[in-house]
Specification:
By secondary structure, the protein is mostly helical. It is built from five helices and no strands. The chain is elongated, with a radius of gyration of 15 Å. Helix 1 packs antiparallel against helix 2 and helix 1 crosses helix 3. The termini are far apart.
Length: 145
């Protein structure tokens, strides 16, 4: 298997996991007069993403790729920046929106790579992930208005 394709798959996997973790961080730490609505928004997002992480890992294994599975590997591979502070809610929205848009773009790239490799089942999975992130971005963008 092409090393560039393999690295792109691992990077996208690690980034998806980091995205879910960041959404969960914001879910736990949001505050303010609309706390409950914000809490639920972030929960809906991280639940959806965590719900596919295992399938993504299994897709990698089906290609004989070991799934990254440690904090150090995730940290080395992810394109989603870690958040160590507790931002205001609007900043949480902006940050997660930028990350969700980034994830949609990453899934677009690995979709094309999967298609070129003849991994059509995997490309279908990536198309669904791109759509999911577009929906997350819609919810986050609408919440900023």
């Amino acid at each position: 298997m092409d090393e560039k394709y393999q690295l792109a798959l691992k990077t996208t996997f690690a980034s998806e996991y980091a995205f879910a973790l960041k959404a969960q961080n914001f879910h736990w730490n949001t505050e303010g007069p609309l706390f409950y609505q914000h809490h639920l928004l972030f929960e809906r997002i991280y639940d959806e993403v965590y719900g596919v992480v295992d399938k993504f890992a299994e897709e990698l294994r089906a290609l004989q790729i070991y799934a990254p599975a440690s904090l150090s590997k995730f940290s080395m591979l992810t394109k989603v920046e870690d958040e160590n502070a507790v931002p205001e809610f609007q900043d949480m929205l902006r940050e997660l929106l930028a990350d969700s848009d980034k994830m949609a773009q990453m899934f677009k790239i690995v979709f094309t790579m999967a298609e070129q490799s003849g991994d059509h089942g995997l490309s279908n999975f990536f198309a669904d992930r791109q759509d999911a992130h577009k929906k997350h971005s819609w919810f986050l963008r609408a919440s900023l208005k």
